[in-house]
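Pilot study result, target chain (101 residues):
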Amino acid sequence: MKKVLIAAAAATLMLPTAAMAERDGLTVYNTKCGVCHASGAAGAPKVGDAADWGARATQGMDTLLATAKKGKGAMPPSGLCMDCNDNELKSAIQYMLDNSK
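Predicted structure:
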């Protein structure tokens, strides 16, 4: 019985860690960014459009991340992904770049 209780307590303590697992670029894109970047809504660069992303790609990840975090044009800060950390935003940006060549 004691081992079962210890295992249950350990599993419970691990739940917040699992809930805070970092999301990959595809997940962030599909749940946050794709709303505008799939269609080009409000002037957002469309994923898959090399012309939209070509000049942006040359700016480098640090610049793209800073722009995403600050917001630009109709895009609010962090693209409304207020729960995204820098790595998640970078992963989403990289996903969009990789799929727009």
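One observation from the pilot: Residues 4 and 10 are 10 Å apart (CA to CA). A full batch analysis is planned for the follow-on phase.
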